[in-house]
């Protein structure tokens, strides 16, 4: 019987840059055509957001935010080290990177072989925290046989799972998966476990309209120009339950990781795309602390979209798996932010933490 360790973490892209780049998404929205003029002025922002922004446009708060994120990542990494898995299976969103107009599967197991990636070729966020040059190559181990076994098992469970043996539009790994490797190796101790990514179409209706990133507020798409929706939370939950059953039937030890921040400001219609839905995240985090996995499966897709919870669907798959295994969190933490685009959540749901 296989053993499964559940973990959750962020893959926050701006974390790859300096503290002065951490508020990149907010600055983009404030400068975007069509953004409400009365919301560009910090005087109109909520008090907590103004305090975080401060008189240095969030620079001091960014240093505090980074310290909190590093602490969370180190705690998750310590749990993975102690568990010593045979492979790491990561649920992550594809943000108009590998999957585009020619093919958009709701779910897809990326059964890749070993690959070499260059994570710092783009300098969008400036120098990286490790001071590594743009030509740096990171070796990532794959596990095609495990990927195939997951697909075969899921098909046997009634989940019509897509799969791929090589990348499509995006060379290497989409950022949700690559950043997971980089962040879990924040202290550069090495990441030598095989990786099996499971891509989820979290962006749904906004995938091609937003090109996976920012909404066009000046000329928003008509309803008929939007894409079909993401897989619904209840389906993500069912897929997670099936995934847990498959892993439980395989020999070995597996980390099942949800890689995503929670509410994203640039997706959050409920706050006018200014900041994350912090209060909603806080309430849902309480459900995580209580091990109330069913609350994640019961989320309404319209609310997911309204609160910028698109990438939370990665966590819903994890919730389904942990519900199937009847586990409760050993540790979890919420790192709130109004300024740095998203609330970040970390969790460890141990292999022995039965209810």
Care to describe what's here?
By secondary structure, the chain is of the alpha/beta class. The chain has helices at residues 24-31, 47-53, 59-83, 144-156, 175-184, 233-248, 278-289, 294-297, 301-306, 313-325; strands at 3-9, 87-93, 107-110, 115-117, 138-140, 162-164, 195-200, 253-259, 331-335, 344-349. It has an 8-stranded mixed sheet with strand order 6-3-7-2-8-1-10-9, sandwiched between helices. A two-stranded antiparallel sheet has the order 4-5. A hairpin with an 8-residue loop joins β9 and β10 (344-349). α4 crosses α6 (233-248) and α6 (233-248) crosses α10 (313-325). The longest helix is centred in the first third of the chain and has 25 residues, at 59-83. It is globular, with a radius of gyration of 19 Å. The two termini are 19 Å apart. The model has no long low-confidence stretch (mean pLDDT 95).
> SSE string, helix = H, strand = E?
EHHHEEEEHEHEHEHHHHEE
How far from one another are the termini?
19 Å
Please estimate the helix content: 25-40%
**Which radius of gyration do the C-alpha atoms yield?**
19 Å
* Largest sheet data: 8 strands, mixed
Please supply descriptive tags for the structure shown above.
355 residues, eight-stranded mixed β-sheet, 10 helices, alpha/beta, two-stranded antiparallel sheet, 14% strand
Blueprint (SSEs and pairs):
Elements: E1 3-9, H1 24-31, H2 47-53, H3 59-83, E2 87-93, E3 107-110, E4 115-117, E5 138-140, H4 144-156, E6 162-164, H5 175-184, E7 195-200, H6 233-248, E8 253-259, H7 278-289, H8 294-297, H9 301-306, H10 313-325, E9 331-335, E10 344-349
Parallel strand pairs: 1-8, 2-7, 2-8, 3-6
Antiparallel strand pairs: 1-10, 3-7, 4-5, 9-10
